[in-house]
Fold this sequence. Notes:
Phasin; 112 residues; 2 helices; disordered C terminus; single chain; 87% helix
Amino acid sequence: MTDQRNDMGRAAADAAQQATDRLRASGQHMMESGQTISTKILDQVEANTQEAFSAMRAAAQAKDLSQVMQIQSDFLRSQGQRSMEQAREIGQLIMQFGRAAVAPGSGNDSNG
């Protein structure tokens, strides 16, 4: 009877340790995923800023108001396309990390 209790105690301790290890790995994965997404967003903000300054430079060198309006129109159109693409990229990263987090026996090996 004592051996049975000891075995049950060891099994419970092992299960608790496994749960702790899984929780720790999940937390690490969430932190890495957050860092990857944050870096991607910063890259996108940088690209958007560069495009905005490029458009402002072009507008400053425009010869007339119609050229300024065309530059602005082109910028707004490309910014809209860029925003949709950037949102899609972030959405894909979030889905990828989410799938990796819930996958049974996941090694959390996705890096983005």
